[in-house]
Amino acid sequence: MLLYLTLGSNDLERSGRFYDGCLSALGFIRRVTEKDEIGYGAPSDVRCRFWLVSPYDGRAASFGNGSMVTLNAASRSDVEAFYAAALANGGSDEGAPGLRPFHAHFYACYVRDPDGNKLSAVCERPE
């Protein structure tokens, strides 16, 4: 359904360090580094699917109350690696990796990036 996702950042260098760690845990690589944007994608993809940008209007980036980006993880260990990378790179805990009550195999973690955006990594495969 989605072609790509864009999040604003007030410090692209800091956000780049955060997302380099988190997204590599899920198999994504940094594909683009420009003055006002950083793009990530799968090694086999021709386009970036996840972008960090300095807001185009020049105002401060802000996060939405009730907004969250949820990323698919191939395994529970990938969820754990994402969570560890988030905390090691300036993120904050919003819920440690574990099973959630949404269904029997919903294994997730929740973090906030350095700009306050809420993220989740989820594996729905039985293990």
UniProtKB/TrEMBL annotation:
SUPFAM superfamilies: Glyoxalase/Bleomycin resistance protein/Dihydroxybiphenyl dioxygenase
Pfam assignment, any one: Glyoxalase
CDD domains reported for this sequence: VOC_like
Occurrences of domain VOC (ranges): 1-124
Listed InterPro entries: Glyas_Bleomycin-R_OHBP_Dase, Glyas_Fos-R_dOase_dom, VOC_core
Protein name: VOC family protein
Lineage: Bacteria, Pseudomonadati, Pseudomonadota, Alphaproteobacteria, Hyphomicrobiales
